[in-house]
Design a protein that fits this description.
It is a single chain. This protein has 211 residues and is mainly alpha-helical. It folds into 2 domains: 1-50, no CATH class; 52-155, no CATH class. The protein contains 7 helices and 3 strands, in the order H-H-H-H-E-H-E-E-H-H. The protein has helices at 2-13, 18-38, 43-51, 53-78, 99-111, 142-151, 200-210, and strands at residues 88-93, 115-121, 124-129. It has a 3-stranded antiparallel beta sheet with strand order 1-3-2, covered by helices on one side. Helix 1 (2-13) crosses helix 2, helix 4 runs antiparallel to helix 6 and helix 5 (99-111) runs antiparallel to helix 6 (142-151). The relative contact order is 0.09.
Length: 211
């Protein structure tokens, strides 16, 4: 990236002098340091891009070819009055993982005549197609596969760990003893005790005296 910045600096100046070269080295070094500090850029990422440079160039030529093919298909629709055009809005889930890959795919779809990327939500792409013949379908297509190759090897998506909750211990049911019915014991009627000194004649005498 540093050499690209320096080459662009020389190209903008339009000539080569010692003064321009020294100033260019300083300015490009400062700009490169700014990119590494604040734009999440690093030599490691630069090396990854360099290793995929051939695939990037191949995708560029592929995209140019797709633009010409889509342009020809659009012209055929325009100059065919008997053909009924059926525009539609379709969607598909992409397998791309990086934001850069999704941006490249979305812009590539928009650059090809007949299709426009309306919206992107996470891995869901919403595409407007001029005709059903431009529909990319719900499954993967070649443009997406080529961008995936630039991204790198796509390993299987990690399966989220499931934490097994301990089985709930069934609540112990406490069996209470059956209530013993209360026993009502009837009190025995008091039996008056017999007094041998108290008889009927005495009772009559006492009643007569009372009168």
């Amino acid at each position: 990236m540093y050499f690209l910045l320096f080459g662009f600096w020389v190209l903008l100046n339009g000539k080569w002098t010692t003064e321009i070269a020294i100033v260019g080295v300083i300015v490009c070094a400062a700009l490169y340091a700014f990119m590494c500090a604040f734009m999440d850029y690093s030599p490691k990422k630069e090396w990854k891009i360099a290793k995929r440079f051939g695939k990037i160039v191949g995708y560029f030529f592929y995209l140019v070819g797709e633009i010409f093919k889509s342009a020809w298909g659009t012209m055929v629709l325009i100059w065919s009055p008997d053909k009924e055009i059926e525009p539609r809005v379709t969607s598909f889930h992409t397998k791309l993982r990086t934001d850069a890959g999704k941006v490249v795919l979305a812009n590539s779809i928009t650059m090809t005549p007949g299709t426009i990327t309306v919206d992107v939500q996470d891995d869901l792409f919403l595409i407007h197609c001029l005709d059903e013949s431009f529909d990319v379908g719900t499954e993967g297509f070649e443009m997406e596969s080529r961008v995936m190759q630039i991204e790198g090897v796509h390993a299987a998506a990690p399966v989220p760990e499931t934490v097994e909750e301990p089985a709930e211990t069934p609540e112990e049911t406490v069996v209470l003893p059956a209530e013993t019915p209360e026993v009502y014991v009837e009190a025995e009627a008091e039996i008056p005790q017999y007094d041998p000194q108290y008889d009927g004649d005495t009772a009559e005498k006492e009643d007569a005296q009372d009168e």
